Amino acid sequence: QFLMANKLDTAMWISRLFTVYCSALFVLPLLGLHEAASFYQRALLANALTSALRLHQRLPHFQLSRAFLAQALLEDSCHYLLYSLIFVNSYPVTMSIFPVLLFSLLHAATYTKKVLDARGLNSLPLLRNLLEKLNANQQNILKFIACNEIFLMPATVFMLFSGQGSLLQPFIYYRFLTLRYSSRRNPYCRTLFTELRIVVEHLIMKPSCPVFVRRLCLSSISFISRLAPTVA
What we know:
- The chain has eleven helices and no strands.
- It has 232 residues and is mainly alpha-helical.
- The protein has two domains: 1-185, no CATH class; 187-231.
- Helix 2 packs across helix 6 (94-119) and helix 10 (188-204) packs antiparallel against helix 11.
- It is a multi-pass membrane protein.
- This is TMM33 protein.
């Protein structure tokens, strides 16, 4: 009854579980490397479906206007719909599947707990313990996802020069990264950029650091800072 009363949430729960399943079979290619590539695409397509359903839930009344598009781009679900479309037809990259896998796992775990509560507060205690441990590590998982989002930017450039990526991919991914940096709901991308900058500046200011490395890092920090969008 609980699942039927929340049909849209249940559909997203099933698609997230399917995303976790496909992502796991890509990361751990138990069925062979050829099948792993197909699971990579399935995971991203399932994530795109989940993101589209979540976006519909957040913005139910579609309008073909700039105002609606601007509002949609503020939603994290729109960001990951774009993310799935960026990588779904590209060369499989293990790093790109981790944000999809971990976000799906976190959201699926949250809804699974609601399903267990609907069955009874004492149902399946072992599964509840696993979900509690996952929830306890949520902050670390979100930071790891943000780190993946950041380091995928140079990875897309490397893929371009190695012949495994398209010319447009780095530019579209840069747009995705600016959306994540400006996210209202998830500040971890901004936090990671700040922490990485502090760590790099601390290292290059040591006397043992060569002068040319210090200048290169400072120039890179200045360049990246100019590319960062303004956050209200």
